Amino acid sequence: MLKKLKSAERLFLLIKKQFxxxxxxxxKGKICNEMQRLINDDPESWLNTISIWKNLLELDAxxxxxxxxxxxxxxxxxxxxxxVITKKLKAEQMQKTQENREYQLExxxxxxxxxxxxxxxxxxxxxxxxxxxxxxEAAGTPSQNDLTFRVxxxxxxxxxxxxxxxxxxxxxxxxxxxxxxxxADLRDPDVEIxxxxxxxxxxxxxxxxxxxxxxxxxxxxxxxxxTVAWAMASVAEIKAGALVLDPMCGLGTILLEAAKEWxxxxxxxxxxxxxxxxxxxxxxKAAGLEDKxxxxxxxxxxxxxxxxxxxxIISDIPFGKKFKxxxxxxxxxxxMERVLxxxxxxxxxxxxxxxxxxxxxxxSSIPSNSExxxxxxxxxxxxxxxxxxxxxxxxxxxxxxASNQECLPKIPPFGSLMPVECYKVSLGKTDAFIYKYKKSHxxxx
Amino acid sequence: MKLLTHNFLSSxxxxxxxxxxxxxxxxxxxxxxxVEFNPDFVARMIPKVEWAALVEAANTLSLGxxxxxxxxxxEQNEDFLRTMHHILLEVEVMEGTLQCPESxxxxxxxxxxxxxLLSDEQTEA
Lengths: 445, 125
Hints:
The structure holds 2 protein chains of 2 kinds. Chain A is of the alpha/beta class. Chain A has 12 helices and 15 strands.
């Protein structure tokens, strides 16, 4: 069920979260002790989290076996509180209610619409505080002693100057072995412990699944990461019966995510490259979506489509790192504008460089109609952490909020394309912006 | 390439404009691929279809009797919807050509994908 979270990269069970280690003191040993305290101060929370994780995985395995059986037999309902941790954000917010009766747990997932446009980190952390307490009673202590583990460490900021990731990993590993008697296994552990130490927080958690949620069963070769692709599709307002075009589809990742989630539309993908189209065709076949998605070998600046014939355009504009962009971005936008219906939506993934070339040389003309003219300032707030409604929200250090205000470039309208929203996303090594435009109706309203 | 897709395509050869529709279809290899029937989807596509173009293309492929226009109350008429579903979605042109009616320029269809690049623009991935 958790696998239905489409724009989350990975899901973790949070064990501990606290303020960053104070590294100003030069005494390495002291910090060493602090790290060990992560484990030794509160072994209970460790054991609880492990048992929850075990339950989750058992349930997952059982669900697969009982595919024929009545769903009533094994259900789970879990409380989920999505908290945003890092600055670069992108995902959809989930709200669930929680109930826990021994092993009779019911699981429901409701997706909240993007009306609020709140986006979360590329790594979502799952917090099950209440669940932990009850799980302690219900869990019946599965044998915790024969677990093998591996510690994965990421350090940045001040801590990284004093300790290397390996050192931290070793400190934590040894402490774990001493506290719980678990054995370390670097190749194929039962549990992976993730530790992130930086200037903003110190977090420890366990990933719920081995493979990141972002890796999809139905995509053979991914181009753009599927979480961002899905998120773009969901911002695009794909309605039933729409004609959706990706004029630079590459391997078709965006179209695959969209067609999977919103099957009642006609999807068309286009690319200039033979090799990419071949890959796309493979992907479509593997996903069983060949019927929903048509492929064309055409150029994005010369689309063989009549004007005003497309309802939605979603595209990842090549950044120039992996693939060359043959034409300049303005020509591309112009052609997209031409084929788009009035009232249609364009969602683009742009690099910082693209944003700059769209901002330079374009006078920010004030349109005569105010329709659809929301500036992208609300987007800045949308990057911020939503307060959890169940009361277990995280307090955000003020530095986080301030830095987000400056992060969004203000792109002016492009012809009749009015900017609606903008989201900054992390693509791992680089950042990008999801930009949404709406085509306004012809002048004169 | 399905007939539904063909119905949306128009020639982008310079200077041709709306006279570039519809593209004349020739097929040397056609496959019938069964597709799950979704009446709602078909009903939504019907108003978007350019019927003359569809009929012309279907006739070129000798698909037999093709309705020349949507029936009154087509949304509820399952027979009609099934027929349209078959014509629009289940016929795949695997090999053939598309020709711009105005300029005469010919574009090949290879393994189901029409190549409509105007200049020599292929990039290697």
